[in-house]
Write a structure and sequence with these properties.
Elements lengths: L4 H17 L6 E6 L2 E7 L2 H4 L6 H13 L7 E7 L3 H10 L3 E6 L20 E4 L3 H15 L1
Parallel strand pairs: 3-4, 4-5
Antiparallel strand pairs: 1-2, 1-3
Helix pairs in contact: 1-5
């Protein structure tokens, strides 16, 4: 049974809450293919001491390992925050079918650098899914840091 974007974004939010529990910026991502979650990820930048350990990168790597290949033309990535330029580049090279994100990121999102879509020409983009809930998680995290 095909689930809605909201359903999958709630699963990505569960991943974001895992990051929050580890005092990481609360961003979560999942990769879905044929209505099955094949990979999950959450920010682990501080834990791994690795600036590339974003939720999207971790989820993509897990998906590649799961499938035994480097392309995801039949998959969708759900992520709670607009991908940064680094993650957008990785998504481009993965040839992922669809990217769905929750909250926009005016400070570090790909929109900051790109006037055109940085994703593969065949990639479909859907944004603003559970936007308020995704944004509030980030706002609350940074508010607690001040």
């Amino acid at each position: 049974m095909e689930q809605s974007s909201e359903y999958y974004m709630k699963l990505a939010l569960q991943e974001a809450r895992k990051a929050l529990e580890k005092d990481e910026v609360p961003v979560g991502a999942i990769v879905v293919m044929n209505d099955q979650v094949i990979a999950k990820g959450y920010n682990q930048v501080e834990m791994l001491n690795d600036v590339t350990a974003h939720a999207e990168i971790i989820a993509l790597t897990a998906a590649f390992q799961h499938l035994g290949g480097k392309y995801l033309p039949d998959a969708t990535l759900y992520v709670t925050l607009e991908p940064c330029l680094m993650c957008a580049g990785a998504l481009y090279w993965s040839k992922i079918a669809k990217v769905v994100y929750g909250a926009s990121d005016d400070k570090n999102g790909y929109h900051r650098c790109c006037t055109e879509s940085p994703f593969h020409p065949k990639t479909i983009l859907e944004k603003g899914i559970l936007q308020e809930e995704c944004a509030q998680l980030i706002k609350d995290f940074f508010k607690s840091k001040r």
